[in-house]
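Hey, quick one: can you model this chain's 3D structure?
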Amino acid sequence: MRTTHSRFQRTPKKFYITNWRIEATELRVLDSKGEQIAVMSKADALAKAAAEELDLVLIAEHAKPPVAKIIDFKKFLYQEEKKQKDARKGVKKGVVKDIKLSLFIGPADLERMINKGIEFLKEGNQVRLNLGLRGREMGKTKMAFDLMNGCIVKLGDVNIAKEPKLEGRVVRAVVAKKK
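Sure thing. Here's the predicted structure for all 179 residues.
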C-alpha cells in the first residue's frame, strides 16, 4: 500500500452533531448567549430551535445530561474558523534567516548585512551566515573563516548554534539570540 504525503500539514476538522442527528433523549439547552434555558427532551429542544429558526448543536456530549446550544450553525462555524486563524497568527515558528556574504565584500555592505542580522536576532529569529567562495577564493579559506568570525563578533552577544564550517564552496554558520 502506498501512502501519499502532502507538504501542507492538514488539521482534522471538528465535526458537530446538529439537530436530528443528536442521539441523547434529554438535553441541557443553552440559548445563543450561553445562558441555560432548561433541561428538556430532544423533541422539545428541536421544536424550540425550529421556532427561533436556528439550529440545535451538541456542544458537550459527554456531560450528564449532554449540553446543546440553540444557535445559527453557519455563523458558529465561521466564528470558530476565525478563532483558529487568530490563534495561528500568534504562533511564531523557529525561522532561520539567511545572510549572504562574499569574501571581498565592501565595509559599507558588510555593515549593512550585520545590521540586518541584528534586526533578525531582535525579532527572535536565528541567522544563517553564508559566505560563498568562487574560483581561486577557495585557496583563501583562512581569510573566509576570519571574516566569518569577525561577523559573529560584530553581531554582539549571541549563541553560536553551528560553528563556522566549510561545506562545499560555502562557509556556513548559524547564530541565535542569547536567552
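One thing worth noting: The chain has a mean pLDDT of 84.
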